[in-house]
Design goal:
This protein has 329 residues and is of the alpha/beta class. The chain has 14 helices and 8 strands. It has an 8-stranded mixed sheet, with helices on both faces. Helix 4 links the parallel strand 4 and strand 5. The mean pLDDT is 94.
């Protein structure tokens, strides 16, 4: 298929490469012409203007956005709405708020333009590992774009099938899923990120306690000088708490056992806040996820080794840079 990609940051650029590697044609656009030039050198087709990008696509067109949520998405969707035709599709693969998706889809529907929201997980490793895709939108455009989703997703790989699972028609085992109508994809990704906060917080606190076992405030008989990097490596192998996050934790500790390159100032993308907000609206208790969010707020006032661990994990999976080093809160 031929598709456009707008936004060539860490995620957008690697998604473009993965699509090209799987035989698709990609027209690319970014505010930074150097980003466009780099991908043109790797086989993409460059566009200098949105008008040019739209002209290079066959109808029905598909334009994928990987730009910051909020105002940037809003302006880009509005600009594309003036250029696209009935039957075309805009896909928002960023971390937009699901309620905003519903509003945007409603406005585009009057023009006959489809809107699909795709929660995308995979970070900077997605080019190699593939991306987990959580999709919301109408059935017809989602089905038409199935080859694109399949190319970006990890596929079944060598992960064993889940026992007693008999739904052979589902694409979940391939790493992408049509979760429901517009907004459902970003809603599922929002909860995914809320859970991520909780998992990361649990690892961070655990390693902080391990490190604190050497404290001179403890009786000498109960004082342990533990190598956190060795314990992380140990837990990767056969432990019930093994995970990709633990793999990245072990890598961060191997690179810098004291995490001296991190301040422990932990930002949040907004999705943790939205998850807690959804829990409040649904009257669902979410103590762990809420506490994990609040821990990030606290980290901006005082930093512990555990918060350095959180910051290191974020850098490992997403390339996130601490505030003051290039990332905005």
């Amino acid at each position: 298929m031929k598709i456009a990609m707008i936004g060539l940051g860490k995620m957008g650029a690697n998604m473009t490469r993965r699509l090209i590697n799987n035989g698709h044609e990609v027209v690319v656009y970014d505010l930074d012409p150097d980003n466009v030039a780099h991908l043109v050198a790797e086989g993409a087709e460059g566009a200098a203007l949105l008008e040019d990008l739209v002209k290079r696509l066959p109808a029905p067109r598909a334009v994928w956005l990987m730009v910051p949520a909020g105002v940037v998405v809003e302006k880009t969707v509005a600009a594309l709405a003036e250029l696209l035709e009935p039957g075309d599709t805009i896909i928002d693969g960023g971390n937009s708020f699901y309620k905003d998706d519903v509003c945007r889809a409603g406005l585009l529907k009057h023009r006959g333009i489809h809107f699909i929201d795709v929660g995308t997980s995979g970070g900077t490793w997605g080019l190699e590992r593939g991306y987990s895709l959580m999709i919301g939108g109408d059935q017809d455009p989602v089905q038409r774009l199935a080859p694109i989703f399949a190319a970006l997703a990890p596929g079944r790989g060598d992960i064993p099938a889940t026992p007693h699972r008999n739904d052979s028609a589902s694409t979940a085992e391939q790493g992408y899923l049509h979760c429901g109508p517009v907004g459902a994809g970003h809603f599922v990704k929002m909860i995914h990120n809320g859970i991520e906060y909780g998992l990361m917080q649990a690892y961070a606190e655990g390693f902080d306690i391990l490190r604190g076992a050497a404290s001179e405030s403890l009786p000498e008989a109960f004082r342990y000088h533990l190598e956190c990097s060795e314990i992380a490596e140990l837990w990767r192998r056969g432990s019930v708490i093994s995970s990709w996050l633990l793999d990245l934790t072990a890598q961060a500790l191997a690179e810098d056992p004291e995490l001296s390159g991190y301040t422990g100032y932990v930002t949040d993308s907004g999705e943790g806040r939205w998850t807690v907000q959804a829990a409040v609206e649904e009257a669902v208790p979410a103590e762990v996820l809420t506490a994990a969010l609040y821990a990030r707020f606290r980290s901006r006032q005082q930093n512990t080794f555990g918060e350095k661990m959180l910051s290191a994990m974020r850098q490992q999976f997403g390339g996130h840079v601490e505030a003051g080093k290039g990332e905005k809160v």
